[in-house]
Specification:
heterotrimer, A alpha+beta (181), B alpha+beta (556), C mainly alpha (299), A: 181 residues, alpha+beta, Alpha-Beta Plaits, two-stranded antiparallel sheet, 5 helices, elongated, C: 299 residues, mainly alpha, 12 helices
Amino acid sequence: MWLTSKIKQVLMVIKPGVVTLNYPFEKRPVPENFRGAPYWDHEKCIGCGGCANHCPARTILVRDICQEIRVMVYDGSRCTYCGRCADVCPEKAITMTDRYELATDDRQDLNESMELFMLTCQRCGRCYDMENVNMIDRMDLQGYRYDNIEARTFIRKTTDRFDPEMLKKTADYKRPSKIGE
Amino acid sequence: MNSLDKVLKTLQDKFGAGITGHASPLPTRLFINIKAENVREISNEVVALGGRYLVGIGHDNIARDGNIGMIHTFGFDKDNFIVHLNAAVPGSNPVMPSITPDIPGAGWSEREYQDLLGMKFEGHPKPKRLVVADDWPADIFPMRKEVPYNMVPPAAEDVAYQLDECPEGCSIIPVGPFHTALHEPEHFAVYVDGETIKGCDYRGFMTHRGIEKLCESQVSYNEVPFIAERICGICGSVHATAYSQAVEMAGGIPVPKRAEYIRSLLLEIERLHSHLLWLGVAGHLIGFDTVFMQSWRVRENIMWLSERITGNRKTYGMVIVGGVRRDITPEIGEDILKVCAKVEEEVKIIHKSITGDTALHKRTKGVGYLSKEEAIKWSLVGPVARARGIDIDVRRDHPYAAYSELQFNVPVVDTCDVWGTLVVRLLEIYESISLVRQIIAKMPKGEILTELSEEIPPLKHGISVVEAPRGESVHFVITGEENRPDRWRVRAPTYPNLQAIPAMLLNDQFADFPIIVGSIDPCFSCTDRVEVVNVTSGKKRIMSKSEIEFISRGNR
Amino acid sequence: MDIVYIVVNIVIFLAFAPLFEGIVRKLTAKVQSRQGPPVIQPYYDIIKLLGKENFIVGNWAFTLAPLMSFAAIISVICFVPLGYKANFLTQYADVITIIYLLTLGGVSILLGALSSKNTFAMMGASREMVTMIMVEPVLAMTFFVGAVKVKSLGIDATIFSVMNTGYSWAVVLMMALYLMALQAFVGKQPFDIAEAEQEILEGPFIEYSGPNYALFKYSMMLKQMFYASLFVMVFVPFLYTGVYALDIAIQLCEIALVYVLIALVGATNPRLRIDQAVKYYAVLIVLALSAVGLSVYGI
């Protein structure tokens, strides 16, 4: 009994063989649908802030630095890669890529930020998108705009753990190529 | 046979004035309001009627009516209903009788609210600090609503938890806070006489992350599932499902049938994963690394499968309130069946090669013995209980998701030791595989998500019980305003099982310590989820590599 | 010229002990479906440890212990008649000396563990002590079976007793017992109780780091190779060619086979508890005694 078990245990391995890979040189491909690092397509983004509103880890910060310019900052160091932002994005501007080797010794490497030029509504002075029928209307748009007094409370509650200096430090904004040229 | 009416009637007859009201929103749930001073007698009566202690929930209601509430919940497994005893004590003087002397499983729940809400339990046998850190100020009760979620009181160096008295002639072996047998920081002080364990004191709750407080004060209903998944790395989907079901019950949100099937599928895949993982860890803990590597090799298929279905190897992120996020396409269904066939075959090989191994029997049979009576007294759950002859399984006893429409056996053995746990888990792997096949075959077509159109009404209570791989998880939700729960209480399976560890360890060899603790598959972070200690303090500092190196060399 | 044989002994042991350790690791990895580390990983380990910082937590005994352990095993190796060639040192010692020196290696582990005052080290030390007390007799009996046969305690006479006088039932029994005790001699599963990473965190060595730990590791590897080579020299002395270099090569191959056995047994067994192990050793000792008894009667 004892011996047969031992023999079985040794022989167990014959069929599968060695299954580990010579990792850094040999990578296992990831399946489609994989949720790796998110990527923002700044050309598609309309700056609605839906992703920021639904991010459980609060890693996405939206801030209007003036009437026309909206800055979106993604802090990847706390991201849980749940892909919720990609789900809710009305313009499918966010895709979950297949990148998963994200280790770095500088957390700035993980951040992504973009500046969006927003149009201004002549009537109320707020930012909006050209199209009338879009997901924005259905999305809870509280907050993320400093001109909204009601939202200011929301910002304080949800984003006070962000370093206010972070925006200044993040110098590598991506410039949109089409709009605002 | 019991029924809700019968329980209610018995209690009303016996304690007429002690019962101030009752409600039964669902045919399987009974809420009874009782007077705090009668809690001990009434809960004894409920246990005598066949109730099994689930969890105690304390909640701060001071802002509304000046009271602190304490809800004791009891599950009636044979009859599929849950009884809640809802007591309230004034916030100015929150003293109520303890039920621990009769129901030892309630010990931690009561100690928890002693720390978190400042309640006092008269007659508690061990009213020591349980949850908050040793240097946490004695007059700040973090779970009270007026305490902000990110409060960080100044640290103190000169306070330390006083361990229990060491028995005569024994020496203390510290296991933890960091020890290879424990995969998370916890501290056991094991009192040994030579190599024989004569006692054990536990100081845990070192991995507090403030999840409950955070979710009660910061995030919204549909963000909680993602945080709930991070309560535990292994049974993440269980927590997300349990939370979602509790909210759905409280808010009366219908869930599409297909979503329920997908949830069950995820839970079963998770169970497969967890059992294979546990088998490996158990092998590792007794120094049998071949079992470890081989079962993890098989587990890798499951990991690949979940990556295929959900996009992530673990923490699936599929379950949200109202349904699930991704659908199972026919191609994925085929892959699932393929992987199931492969895993079943491989598990059979492993099963055959280890069940007859006498060397393995030597290390597991008779180890961690706890009799059935003791196990019932400590209200053990999951495979640990089923290895001790207690026939409970939430999937069958309190059906949720799609389990009422699926057929499966609940393996029960009565060896009362670690070997029994191993056998139960191995057999459950086969049951899970058959469940996955049934789910794929029976899955109905349709929607997978109910959009939340209306606001969830505040102050509704919801409880949901879900069978995690290691036992049952209980989630209790009191809905609140501002689109977030007012109170969310999580009780992971390790919570009751860990309380019984000192009893299991008694008179065993120290060499068996890792496998005994390992046999309950302890998930300390599940257990420690509450609390607000040091959720990243306001200050953030980026350390350079050389700084980290400097600190790790023991310098300050 | 005689000194050459001793130097060859030491050089071969120092050079090959980590290699065999590497073979064990690689083979264990294969049984576990892993790639495993390169075969020469133990050399890297030792070189790396030698370059690390040396943390000293005890008194002078803490520093002395690894040196003593290393010195003891090197002295043992000097006496080994590798390649069936007894060197001139053997006439100054007998098998009792070898047993003493091996015990000294164990004692120095105890010394280091006890001087570090770590709870786990203490526990490891007590387990190491029990193992030593219970396993040492089996080794002694192995020599005595031969010694009784040739009526001499001399190292070469004892070790070559099987080669010179052939097998007897006593030798066959002793050979089986030696194989059964082999895992305990080399401190591998199921008898790595003293180190028991999951229970007492490498026990006696918990406080060691850097070069000190490297010395301990190296002496453990040398000890393992000594026990494997002893088996080859005492019990399977057939392939004697008379050519020194060829004999050494053949013996190394045989040692490698013993290591394969060690690896396979180690990979398919859980660690025993100390109380279970003691019962096992007790049976071995009784059987070993009877083997010596048989040998006395010439059976």
